[in-house]
């Protein structure tokens, strides 16, 4: 029997696994990954920039199990729950979460040194510090004006854990918390992702349950993009056999109405000043990572490694795709689905103890869930 603790461990380890597997090929196109790697099937993958000079690598290193900000921010959110031991909202984004990412040092494996997570973050995640600390914004308005991306969805899985078995509560809390960071479809994806993790934490949960949860909560372009990608997956499964190349091509085509940048994910000087809808608020837009993750989970009937390998090999924001697959299927199967040698390598190269971190967080999550259950008993008494 897979216990609650096993599932919490599976979430944290699944996030790190997907992050480490996708990080060496992040921002490469599907065609580039095929040409240089064939397919990514292990965390022991050499980064395509490994031989670049220090300036071109931005002083970073990846490959062989090194994780990125996706994992570091997930662990930071777990620590916030350990500190607060209650449900969170945008005020916690602007308070304890800011402390975790901007003031408390941790080992940042890409940089090979202890520093604040803020030193590693991409600009849309640094926006948390700018808005809440420098601009002293109203926390619930913190995400306004930010680049709309998957930045909140990539680390939101702990919200699903503390609301295990209650996807609606997970969706609501993710929205309330992440509105301090994101807006529009970036915020919506965080809510849907948390709901999927909450559902996956339920004993006996199936892939169909997770997909129905995503469709049941997603709104606007996020729902349309998920529907489109799941339609592709349904069609491929009905064929009886399908090729990986066909799956990626059709998924990317299905996403174009909702995420039109395609492979054009880099920012260059010749783009400056040119108008675009990319990463801008829109009721018709969607991030790509969650719909793609759900499609590969569906195509592989919830098998973790095959779904993750296909997801991170499909190109673009590969580490975040891997993180979302890992969090959902880690919750569904528990840590037993992850190879022991991968767990050992992730801990070793990143100077982590994922099981200890997971267990500390699980203790806080249990307290929160038990208080929720006590509250339900009190409400039930009102009906007597």
From TrEMBL:
InterPro entries: ADP-ribosylglycohydrolase, Ribosyl_crysJ1, Ribosyl_crysJ1_sf
A Pfam family of this chain: ADP_ribosyl_GH
Residues that span the membrane, as ranges: none
Domain of life: Bacteria
UniProt protein name: ADP-ribosylation/Crystallin J1
Organism name: Thermobacillus xylanilyticus
Gene coding for it: txxe 1610
């Amino acid at each position: 029997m897979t216990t609650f603790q096993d599932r919490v461990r599976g979430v944290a380890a699944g996030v790190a696994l997907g992050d480490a597997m996708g990080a060496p090929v992040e921002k490469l196109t599907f065609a580039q990954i095929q040409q240089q790697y064939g397919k990514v099937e292990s965390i022991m993958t050499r980064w395509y920039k490994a031989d670049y000079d220090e300036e071109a690598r931005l002083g970073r290193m990846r490959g062989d199990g090194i994780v990125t900000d996706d994992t570091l921010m997930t662990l930071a959110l777990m620590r916030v729950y350990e500190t607060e031991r209650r449900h969170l909202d945008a005020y916690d984004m602007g308070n304890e979460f800011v402390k975790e990412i901007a003031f408390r040092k941790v080992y940042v494996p890409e940089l090979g040194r202890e520093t604040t997570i803020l030193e590693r973050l991409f600009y849309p995640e640094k926006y948390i510090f700018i808005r809440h600390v420098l601009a002293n914004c109203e926390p619930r308005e913190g995400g306004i004006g930010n680049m709309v991306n998957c930045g909140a969805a990539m680390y939101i899985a702990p919200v699903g854990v503390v609301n295990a078995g209650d996807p609606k509560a997970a969706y609501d809390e993710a929205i309330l918390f992440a509105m301090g960071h994101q807006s529009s479809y970036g915020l919506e994806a965080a809510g849907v992702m948390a709901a999927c993790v909450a559902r996956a934490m339920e004993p006996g949960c199936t892939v169909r349950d997770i997909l129905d949860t995503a469709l049941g909560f997603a709104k606007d372009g996020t729902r349309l993009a998920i529907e489109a990608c799941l339609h592709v997956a349904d069609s491929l499964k009905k064929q009886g056999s399908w090729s990986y190349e066909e799956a990626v091509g059709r998924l990317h085509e299905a996403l174009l109405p909702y995420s039109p940048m395609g492979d054009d994910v880099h920012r260059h000087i010749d783009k400056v000043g040119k108008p675009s809808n990319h990463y801008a608020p829109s009721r018709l837009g969607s991030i790509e990572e969650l719909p793609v993750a759900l499609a590969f989970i569906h195509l592989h009937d919830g098998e973790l490694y095959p779904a993750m390998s296909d997801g991170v090999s499909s190109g673009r924001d590969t580490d975040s795709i891997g993180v979302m697959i890992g969090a959902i299927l880690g919750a569904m199967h528990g840590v037993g689905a992850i190879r022991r040698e991968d767990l050992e390598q992730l801990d070793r190269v990143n100077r982590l103890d994922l099981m200890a971190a997971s267990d500390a967080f699980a203790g806080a999550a249990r307290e929160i869930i038990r208080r929720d259950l006590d509250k339900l008993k009190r409400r039930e008494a009102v009906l007597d």
